[in-house]
């Protein structure tokens, strides 16, 4: 029956007993009549409809309504059960006598009790009733006592037993509550309904301590159980409440609080199931209340130490986890019990806790937990202060080990010898002196515990694992001594500067450590050409690392002349006799052998070159002595690894050294097995995919520089790549910096011309060469016969057709034969160089006359997940594609057909241009280069023309040079070019 808000009404709170949930309150509004009396007209009120009755409610009423909503059975079910169910099914299932869930029952009880307590606290001055059996909310009015009652607990011990009972006082008068139909309607804290009055109690008495006595005078505790009963039940009562005892003593005592710190192994957490834990699962919406939740237990020791703070009061220990002002200790003397009520000095205890916090030991809930090494470092550091503060420090009986907590010191010395550094030192743990080398496996494996001769466990200081990790990782152990290679000079300096080691070294090494500039070296006399200033600096640097017997990595950007700097070094060693008659080995991708050869012929013709490649190479290492430089490929080194090991080279030099980035590959293993006086690597991209690329290459030139592969992976690769650890990145950079020379284009821009043109010669694969020769033979016979019979004019179409077919095969045979499934030498080289340019952070325009050729390149880039822009004659929105390339930093490749890209494009974001298939007219190619080099372009543009060796491309290049003026000034079409060819030209092209 609805209540009218236009007529007087009253908010009331009605107490009822639920079959499963216990005592609850419900909120109602009840209509008043004209005389102000409550009528039978009423309705429930909840948070949803409470605003309708706002005129008759105050702030407390709104709070009470919200709380009563939360304990209604539907709200409880929703809180604890995620599945759809009826109240009957829910309560029958959870409260079943045999199969019910006791844990969930307890959680629900706690939930309801908490809210009942909050409701009862707010009922003072409100209209409160007991609900009638017919659901009438105003059946009997009750009130809340204006002040709390007091409970006194009594114990009477005699020869046979102890009687226990409580008495209650209210306003100075004893309250007769036994056998009076009193009920406990809330247990925590206790609220008792006696007659028409609701009572609560001082000191938050638990209702379970009163409930047994509602219909009982006392409880009897037999003698045989009094020990445990006194400890578990009486002592907490004495601690928190007024207790009157006969037959045993209760003594209140005061002492000076003396701090005590007990350390022990920290237990690892294991999984247990508690009612509260299971209820927590249920309340998160689990379909059932099963499942374990991890809570603290004490099982096996871990790598942490517990510090438990306690205080001695007289002869008694009080743990700071005890949160009451009084702590009770039970003592039994023969047949008598004494309850010592220790009055704690909580202010003094808090002062001690604060002083520990000031010293970086945060005690919370009576305990601090530190990593084992940190814990013992803390103890060593604060030992004297703890004594001054009156502390007793002891090891807990639960610890399975006897720990050493005395003084720890270390002394390390490093002395230079002819070939390396000797490392020596001692460690003192109290009276014991231990050789420094004994700590090596502990530091490397992060094992903190070191067993002393007397059986005690010493904890290695945590800082040593940082300070001496690299020393142990990079050193080598021989006959119980440690040695360190000289390329670890920077590490030795760091140890000396950090006062972690005393160092003795030669003046030469001291000079190296202090150097600021690299000495200028004379150029070889027979060198043809001139090095740019940055190239001369690179040449000087190569001499510098060689002088100190270090390996080096020349990592200039592509196009800056790593080849010419290296050739100048080798020529100087030949002229000065430094090579001592030994050849140097240059290892590179097969596609680069011809380029190195042409560069050597151009700049260092005095160097005697042996091209050690091909199926029919002469496998005789003795012949190497007749040459200065041996050019070979990674593939050949793999095949001839055992043979090449037998020769000691002057230099072993790896070009495009990222080829050995995988340390486990056969290529890496093969080159590491080569013997030489010096090692050098050349690469524009020292790191292509992973930081491990760097380890493999640096370990080739300076073995041991970055430790073992496992050490590097653990200490550098994972922290840098997964953890983005800037400190580790800086440390790695510091280790490799002396051995890498890297110049970017931008750094040397002022020394470069506007444009630099390069030819990149690409060898054909075997299958490609076979295809090319068959096609050439076919067209050569037909064309020469036609020339003989019909003359030049009638043969022009056939000649153009044949040359076009040969050009296609030189690029990729698939352009001419769709069923061709093998590789192309040019595609390999183009993709390799695109990857290099992209890795170095540059942008490249890739031009081809053939859309079909661009399609093949596109497929290769897609396969390698390299993003690119694309433009040919069919591209609809040219300007959008150009803008995307110009403005997108991550987009570094633009594939363009020469015809589509010849007019109206401004692509100044690129500083590399690749011409995939150069042809007769350089003007067309120049136009492509100008796409990148326009007004406003501040950077040098590097152009690479890809020429397939021993094909019509190479022969046209030679013919082009012969007729350069004619080609440049007059000829603009293929047809015009064909007309200009003589019979001798044609025979040369098809030869």
From TrEMBL:
Domain Helicase C-terminal: 829-978
InterPro entries reported for this sequence: Helicase_ATP-bd, Helicase_C-like, Helicase_SWF/SNF/SWI_bac, P-loop_NTPase, SNF2-like_sf, SNF2/RAD54-like_C, SNF2_N
One Pfam family it belongs to: SNF2-rel_dom
MF terms in GO: ATP binding; helicase activity; hydrolase activity
PROSITE patterns the UniProt entry points to: HELICASE_ATP_BIND_1, HELICASE_CTER
Coiled coil spans: none
Ranges for domain Helicase ATP-binding: 543-704
Keyword list, A-Z: ATP-binding, Helicase, Hydrolase, Nucleotide-binding
PANTHER family assigned: SNF2/RAD54 HELICASE FAMILY
Name of the protein in question: ATP-dependent helicase
Organism: Hymenobacter rigui
